[in-house]
Amino acid sequence: MTTAKHTSPSSHGVPEVGNPPAFPMTRRCPFSPPEEYRALREQGPLVRVRLPSGQHSWVVTRYAEAKQVLTDPRISTDPTQPGFPTTNPESCEAGQRPEGQFIDMDPPEHTAYRRMLISEFSVRRINQLRPAIQRVVDQRVDAMLAEGGPLDLVEWFGLPVPSIVICELLGVPYADHEYFESRTRTFARLTTDPAEANAAVRELRGYLAELVARVEREPNDGLVSRLFTERVATGELTREALAGMAFLLLLAGHETTANMIPLSVLSLLENPAALAEIRADPGLLPGAVEELLRFHSAVDWVAFDRMAVEDVEIGGQLVRAGEGIYVLGASANRDERAFDRPDEFDIHRGARNHLAFGNGVHQCLGQNLARAELEIALRTLFERMPTLRLARPVAELPLKSDSAIFGLAELPVTW
Ligand code: HEM
């Protein structure tokens, strides 16, 4: 890595030169990132794009440079800095960083929050949760079998499984799920009217502040209540910071996996040979899950908003302090320089080096939980519903193309 010798004063964004392509770009196929990514990757590891505000930013298109950006301490995730890129300047969250939202913090502030949570999401801890996850998955399969097909797998399985699991883990009442799921959907939709999206965020933040007040009155055995007793009551955390952490965990904990489960089911139904191999040898499932994560890269760029705080050279391109960067996770995971036949779905490729969970200090805190949920959900579903099949042709499946996190709006199945 070459470092530029002189740090320039912040230029408050990428200089507006020429007419670069508009960003973000849209996915039109459940199995592919936006079509434009291939050409962008050919153009270079860093390409200039135009955000909806007219502001310019860099996007990182290739794997090696994506990893560099995600691990370089000269590149920040703090959105309160002038020039930090946003795809939605009218959002009440733009340029803001509510207390406790550690995904938007740099070390050492970020490290202190992450340390409070790391053991809660360790492989060991998540292995202890596997029987509880299995119970949730079995209950959802029971419900589907009792209902009978055809039904929408997103509504009956993909969304409820991670939603119930994260509620149980945090100590959030699942009875409130429609409330927080609908508000999450509203603000995750890139086309939502800004006033409506802002109202949804405020309501969700209010809901989590109320949850913190509730665990103070009536402690339970969830993580939020435990953090209250161990960190808020001791003066280490404020109530607002705990509500901010709970907001991040609740959202990150359901919206991501909820999209990955239906996408994964679809991919396996469309690849019957791979599915037959996994059925015959369930030991292949963890590797298949890594490949599903790489192949779909449902989070793509949305968590990867960054800004250089010093001049830094990336892939031969000088990025000046104050310039915004988005890492295109879905492009990096299809980079032919890093993956052989990247557009092929291959459960044997050993895809664990993918960037679907990011890299560096912000690498997904919930990755062990997400892996366990995906493994248990897929294994159980295909074991207990061996004749599961699509109830609508792939070409007619409605996509969540306008959502910050990609997924299927519906997955009608029968058996
Ligand atoms: C398939 C499912 C999931 C995917 C694809 C995913 C993806 C990601 C990515 C790409 C990041 C990195 C953001 C960055 O670099 O700024 C991230 C961070 C994070 N994820 Fe996940 N995630 C998933 C599931 C979960 C679950 C189940 C949880 C549970 C609570 C979770 C909690 C978090 C948190 C708290 C962060 C912030 C970490 C930090 O800033 O230190 N995620 N996730």
From TrEMBL:
Give the protein family.
Belongs to the cytochrome P450 family.
- Family annotation (Pfam families): p450
- This protein is called Cytochrome P450
Q: Where is the composition biased (Polar residues)?
A: 1-11, 77-90
Looking up PANTHER family in the UniProt record yields:
CYTOCHROME P450 YJIB-RELATED, P450, PUTATIVE (EUROFUNG)-RELATED
Query: Which SUPFAM superfamilies does the UniProt record give?
Result: Cytochrome P450 (SSF48264)
Native species of this protein?
Answer: Goodfellowiella coeruleoviolacea
Where is the stretch described as Disordered? 1-30, 73-105
Q: Which InterPro entries match?
A: Cyt_P450, Cyt_P450_B, Cyt_P450_CS, Cyt_P450_sf
Instruction: Give the UniProt keywords, A-Z.
Output: Heme, Iron, Metal-binding, Monooxygenase, Oxidoreductase
Select a single GO molecular function from the record's annotations and give it: iron ion binding
This protein's superkingdom? Bacteria
